[in-house]
C-alpha cells in the first residue's frame, strides 16, 4: 500500500478542525519530474501534518507552453504516488473572469496602468540607464510608461509599485525553512506585469487571486519561487487578501548545478516502482525513506517532528 497514513494522529499533528489549506500547483508544460515530486510531497506532508486540506491547481494560463494531455497525466502521476487532493482540482484557464475582476479592482484603486513597451523598448531603456544584465538576475522594469504611454498603444497592464509601496519598498517576510527574508521590490523587480501583451494573465496575478479565493493558508513550494513571494504579498495587500505562510523547499539540482527543470530537459518521473520514486523525494527533503509497510505515514511522522516549531 503506497499511502499508509497513521490512523491515530501523533500529538504533534493538528486535528481535522485545523483551518490549514495547502496546495500544489503544477504547470502542464510537461510531466512531473523529480524536482516537482519533492515540492508535491512536501506540500502534501505539511497539509497532513496540520490535519488540513490539500488542493491541486493546474496552472495552465499559458496555453502555448502547455502540452496536450499533460494536466491529466500529472494528476495520474500524483495518484500513483498516493498524493490525492481533498477536493476536485481546478484549472486556471477556466478562471479568467476572476482575474479580470482583480485587475479592474486594481485599476479602480489607481494601482494598475497600461504599458506600451515592447521588449526592444525595455532593453533600450536598460542600455540608457547602464544596467548590465547578469545571468539569472532579473532586471527591473525601468518605468518607461509609468507616467503615460507617450503615443504608444497599450499592450500590457502593470502593477504600480511605487504608488502602492511609497517610501517603504523593502518588503520583509519570514520563510519557515529559510528564515528572515527581504527584497526591495521596486529596485529588484519594478512594476511587474498583471496582464501580458498577448492578452494572457500573468502568473503573479493568477496565483494570488486563486490562493485568496481558495482560502490557501500555507504555501509549500520550491526555493526557485521564493523571490516571487514579495510581489505576491504586495498584490495580496492591494486586493485585500490574506497572506499565507511560506515554506520553500530545497531544489533538486543537475550535475552542473542548474535547477532540474522541464526547460533543461528533466525526464518525467519513473513510476514503474512508485515507492522507490517516493523514497528519493523523501531523502531530498531529509526524511527517512518510507518502508513498504508504512510508506508515507513514516515520512509524515518525521515531518511533524522536524517542522513542529514552525507551525502557527
TrEMBL record:
Pfam families: tRNA-synt_1c
A GO MF term: glutamate-tRNA ligase activity
Residues given in the record as L-glutamate binding sites: 23-27, 59, 203, 221
Key words of the record: Aminoacyl-tRNA synthetase, ATP-binding, Ligase, Metal-binding, Nucleotide-binding, Protein biosynthesis, Zinc
Binding-site residues, ATP: 262
Cofactor binding annotation: Binds 1 zinc ion per subunit.
Cofactor(s) required, per the database record: Zn(2+)
GO CC terms: cytosol
Domain Glutamyl/glutaminyl-tRNA synthetase class Ib catalytic, residue spans: 23-266
Superkingdom to which the source organism belongs: Bacteria
Chain positions of motif 'HIGH' region: 26-36
Biological process terms in GO annotation: glutamyl-tRNA aminoacylation; tRNA modification
EC number, as in UniProt: 6.1.1.-
InterPro entries with a match to the protein in the record: Glu-Q_tRNA(Asp)_Synthase (IPR022380), Glu/Gln-tRNA-synth (IPR000924), Glu/Gln-tRNA-synth_Ib_cat-dom (IPR020058), GluQ/Sye (IPR049940), Rossmann-like_a/b/a_fold (IPR014729)
Root EC class: ligase
Record-stated family: Belongs to the class-I aminoacyl-tRNA synthetase family. GluQ subfamily.
Function in brief: Catalyzes the tRNA-independent activation of glutamate in presence of ATP and the subsequent transfer of glutamate onto a tRNA(Asp). Glutamate is transferred on the 2-amino-5-(4,5-dihydroxy-2-cyclopenten-1-yl) moiety of the queuosine in the wobble position of the QUC anticodon.
Name listed for the protein in its UniProt record: Glutamyl-Q tRNA(Asp) synthetase
UniProt source species: Delftia lacustris
